[in-house]
Amino acid sequence: MDHSELMVKIALAGWNTQISRAAQTFDTFSDADFQQQVSRGKNRIIYLYGHLASYHDALKETLGIGKRHRPELHAPFLQNPDDLQAVMPSVAELREFWNSIHLELEQLFASLSTEDWFKRHNAMSDVDFEKDPSRNRLSVLLNRTNHVAYHLGQVKLVKPEVLS
Amino acid sequence: MDHSELMVKIALAGWNTQISRAAQTFDTFSDADFQQQVSRGKNRIIYLYGHLASYHDALKETLGIGKRHRPELHAPFLQNPDDLQAVMPSVAELREFWNSIHLELEQLFASLSTEDWFKRHNAMSDVDFEKDPSRNRLSVLLNRTNHVAYHLGQVKLVKPEVLS
């Protein structure tokens, strides 16, 4: 295995670790728990869940490997801060969305060659890429992995309610 | 620039981004603010600050590129959870420690060649590394970068006290 293949493997392993930790953590919460804030006056769990799922739905377009399925979720989960008045899907629906998006990404990622990962992402022009080839798909993936860790640290502050 | 060099550049850029965001965030807090918890009943800011600095002090040994300066800080910041009774350095002393550790790492990282980054880290044997060469220094760096993001997300929940 050469260095490029190794790096892709390492980057994907990092992504998978964060996503599966996040999924496991969110799964410890009941639908009712999703209304809890991660800290007083801060985002609710439902917001961060929809935020990550929507951002990863858009990630396909950023990487140029697919289309967003739920662009209408960008308003409540990406363009705006958490808002009790916002129209959001049910937690059950969001759980399905989360699972389908991450399954789809897993399959899309598996279909990319090592070379593909070193190509530019869609959010930049060819000219800019020539100037700075480090702005490739792998760097986007690493960036999104840090973003998952960032919010996971917040969600981890909340204890699921123990229902007796 | 070949793919290996690119990857090292990307991984270092990710590390630098998280470290400078974290440093900037911690710097918004007064020494008194450092006693605040990131959420009710959770770690204080001083703990997370010392936790990251101590972990990065140890990172030199994990990567096999240097020695820990303050092994005695492992007890209060790594081996044990936050504890009001723990003996901790002053915030001023911790700020110096944070700065010196990250400056030292910056210099050590700059001295490593691309090839060095693909070598095994110290926490594993040669035999294991032969089985899984993805457990190299770069993967440790990416892992620690996620760890910074994880705790940064928590610290970001706290607003510095505005002193009038």
Automatic annotation (TrEMBL), chains A, B:
SUPFAM superfamilies in the record: DinB/YfiT-like putative metalloenzymes
Residues of the DinB-like domain: 19-155
Origin: domain of life: Bacteria
Cross-referenced Pfam families: DinB_2
InterPro entries referenced in this protein's UniProt entry, alphabetically: DinB-like (IPR024775), DinB/YfiT-like (IPR034660)
Listed name of the protein: DinB family protein
